[in-house]
Every structure is written in structure tokens, then in C-alpha cells.
Amino acid sequence: MTGNLTTQTVWVTRTAPDNRETAARLQTAGFDALAIPVLEASSVESKWPIDAPDVVVFTSVNGVRYHRTKPELLNIPVFTVGDRTACAARDAGYSDVRSAAGDVHDLGRLISGEVSAGTKIVHFSARRPAGDLVGYLNESGFSATRVVVYETQVVSTGAIIAALPPLDAIDAIMIHSPRAAKVVMEALDRSPVSFTGLVCCISPAAAAPFASRSDASVQVADRPDEKAMLSLLKGSRQ
User: Fold this and answer.
1) Which tens digits make up the pLDDT trace of 152-200?
2) In what order do the strands lie in the sheet with 217-220?
3) What is the pTM of this model?
4) Distance between alpha carbon 132 and the CA centroid of its chain, in Å?
5) Considering Cα of 185, then 187, then 189, then 194, what sign does the dihedral take?
6) Coil, strand, or helix at residue 99?
7) Nearest of 134, 149, 172, 122 to residue 8 by alpha carbon
8) H or E segment to which residue 201 belongs
9) In angstroms, what CA-CA distances link 71 with 75, 94, 99, 178?
10) What's the 3-state SS for 39-84?
């Protein structure tokens, strides 16, 4: 890496405003952080299903952020993919929130283990979700519906490169999704300076687009969450 123990620079690629929270955590841990997103999230006009669900599911903080709460349903069980999404759901007013503390596969297993077959489930989701959770739930005997509440758009490669310092001034890149990984790969390919630092990925799927790169060190966090990603970054500078 090009930095030292106190000045390593990490590019945080996740969407705003969550990228700023990640940058703050990095700065507390002694890193310099560049909060430059490669995807932009925006709300999508949506409605609750006609039939009230028995269970609500969120697979991202944005799902919580962009869905419309219904006060009469704030006490029904809510399942989330990870702890940060669970925290967001509690902040939104839900009282019975259970976190899978993992990925969408962990979430599916958690729901299957705690919810009776036939239960009506609503998943508030991105337009392009990572994985077919609703399909899995329906195949498992539930009555699951996906409601799109937000979508993400790609930031142009030119805008990303213009916002970044030279790549040899960056020690690590945090990748929170497979789609973000593809956008970052395009930016790296078009940059006149090679990136030789650490690519810290939240999952094997997020690391897959970098399989052809031999100049960077591509590593996957032990668990698909930001806490594990931060641990990986801290370990890389020792």
C-alpha cells in the first residue's frame, strides 16, 4: 500500500448518505476517507399491497428509508438482512425487529426458521435486488410479495474519475455490492494511473468483477457486513 499507519486513504464507494457514515467510522479508526459514491439511490412511487402483511422484510437501509410506514403495522415482525438495517427499522418505529446478521441467504433461512408457512410477507426492495429472496420464500411455502421502493443509477465514469485523486494516492477501495464493483472496475480501467492497493469486498459476489485484475489485492470480508470490512482494512495495515 502507498500509505502508512496513520494516513491510509480509503475510497468509500457506497451510496449517499450511508457513505458519509462509513467515512466517519473510517476516520475514527485512523484512516482518511473519500466518500465518492458510484451509485445514486432515489425513491420509486409505490403502494402497500391491498392485503396487510403478517411480516415485513428489508434487505437494505435504503429499503427502510424509502418505504412508507403504516402506524398500524409497526408492531408486526420485521426481518432484516443485517444489523444496520435492523437499527434503521427500529428508528423508523418498528418494535419487533430481527436481524439475520448476514446476507440474503442467511435472511431466507432465518425467516424459514421463525415464520409459519403461508404467512403473508412483504419485501420492500430495490428495483434490481441482489438475489431473489421473494422467489425463495414463495418456493418455501410463504405468500411473499416484493414492493419496489427505490432504485439506483450509475454515476458516470467521467464524473467518478474527476472526483478522485490519482489512484496511486488511494490505498484501499470499499465495495458494498456487485453492481458497484462493476462501476468501479470501469473507472479503474479508464484511469491513466494503475490501482495497486486493496479492494475490500463485502461478499464473493462483490469481488467477482475484479477476478481478472492482477495489479490489485482483492479480498473478501469474513462476514457480509461493514464491521467485517473494517476489520479487514485494519488488518491490512499491520
Assistant:
1) 999 999 999 999 999 999 999 999 999 999 999 999 999 988 999 999 9
2) 32-35, 9-12, 172-175, 198-201, 217-220
3) 0.85
4) 16
5) negative
6) strand
7) 172
8) strand 198-201
9) 9, 9, 21, 34
10) EEEEECCCCCCCCCCCEEEECCHHHHHHCCCCHHHCCCEEEECCHH
Extract the C-alpha cell encoding 112. 424459514
CA distances to 92, 121, 130, 189 from 137, rounded to whole Å, are: 24, 9, 15, 39
**Whose CA is closest to 19, among 44, 41, 3, 4?**
41
Residue found under cell 415482525: 77
pLDDT in tens, 29-72: 999 999 999 999 999 998 888 789 999 999 999 999 999 999 99
Q: Is omega for the bond preceding 17 within 30 degrees of 0, making it cis?
A: yes
52: Cβ–Cβ under 8 A, 6 or more apart, which residues? 70, 72, 73, 120
- Bridge-based pairing state of the strands 143-154 and 217-220: unpaired
Three-state DSSP class for 236? Answer: helix
